[in-house]
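Hi F.,

I've been meaning to write this up properly since the lab meeting, where we talked about keeping a consistent format for the predictions we share between groups. The idea is simple: the sequence comes first, exactly as it goes in, then the structure tokens exactly as they come out, then a line or two of notes. No screenshots and no reformatting. I'm using this chain as the first example so we have something concrete to point to.
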Amino acid sequence: MNTIIDALNWRYATKKFDTNKKLSQNDLDILFESMRLTPSAFGLQPWKFIHVQNPETRVALQENSRGQPQITEASDLVVIAVKNNMQESDVDEYIQDMIETRKVDLENIPEDFKNTDKLVEYKNMMINTISSKTQEQLKWRNQKQAYIVLWFLLSTCAQMWIDACPMEWFDPEKYNEILWLHDLGLSATVVVTLGYRSSEDKYSDLKKVRFAKEKLIIQK
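Output, unedited:
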């Protein structure tokens, strides 16, 4: 039986993908759902996931990714992009989604509904927090959260025996330009290639190198 530890020992940052093997739409749906379920600060989900399928676009991105072959050889390419800024409208959108998801009608609140005041307080707290930060601080915070998405995606891939390679060695500004992300108020933060390892990938059978837990865990 596959356990999470078995899966994490099996996975590695795949360097060479099998170009003849493609992910099914069902598998992609599961992977994107795992990304969608990622937790975020205040629940605001300050990101978009760009699924790059156009071959010509992927060639252009590879040219701005130090020529790394995974960009074009992998079955699928996902760019995790974050919002450059956060505004009151982002909070309004989230609160509205919460109202619709949890079936709360703020115009006609049942007498026994006790959480309305708390919802308003929560909204105001989020707005106050955002307004107290600079755009640079908010973007930095959003970029940090992108790596929570990355963890959800990589762990889900491992449990499904799907290979993945997280990548930072790319030119974010060129990615933003090629994918028109600035027009959407977004910045490319991390790239993930997805697919199945090639039998020719010499790294696939190497033993994983990690420090012993005695070196890593500090008991207090």
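Notes:
Strands lie at 47-52, 76-83, 163-167, 186-195.
The CA atoms of residues 62 and 71 lie 6 Å apart.

If this format works for you, I'll send the rest the same way.

G.
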